Amino acid sequence: DNIENCPPNLSRNINLKAYNGHCYEFVVHRHIEWKAAESDCASKGGTLVVVNNMEEQLFLMSALGSFSFHGQGVWIGLTDQLQEGKFSWVSGEPATFTYWAAGQPGVITSPHIGKKRLILDTITGLTNIHLIDEDCVLLKYTDSGHWHDYPCLKLDPLGLVHENFPYVCEYRQTATTVGTPQTVTPSTTQTTIPTTTPETDVMASTASAEVAGSVGELVVG
């Protein structure tokens, strides 16, 4: 697809690609938390990417490969922040297509604590144990594009470990402008066409007059 149909506020560069009526901005050189990534996409009129089928999944992987991407993965717009265990897209669409890695989503699942990640931090000889919610999803490039759920924000209360990743924003293409045929209104001003008077054959007229005069003279005489 032509990136010229992408929203005009997006920079035209190699990080902007178009596919199947949508535009994709690959923010591969910026590493931030999921919520900050979603806010950035929304500020430009889009969302974190919504992956609807395997064809779109393969497109994303192919595009990342074209950048010689060396990161671990990219944030996508899938989350279960509203209801634990029920993943939906930031656009409000249900997750009818998924590409979870084996054992995903979730690390620890319990009727009492829900789905959590166990974090062990050793600081000044002390071991701190944290159970962290994993409500946001990473398309993990290093795992053949399979999806993993990660914490949306920092992992530990002390802020020593962060989940900062690149991300992909998705936008709808703008409609192409079709020219409106112009209506030609007939002019009400009458156009005067000059009449051309045929030239009189002077020689013929003179000759006729001479003949007529001669005849008249003959009759009278």
TrEMBL record:
Residues 19-152 form the C-type lectin domain. GO terms for molecular function: carbohydrate binding. It comes from the Eukaryota. Transmembrane segments: none annotated. Keywords: Lectin. This is C-type lectin domain family 4 member E. It comes from Magallana gigas.
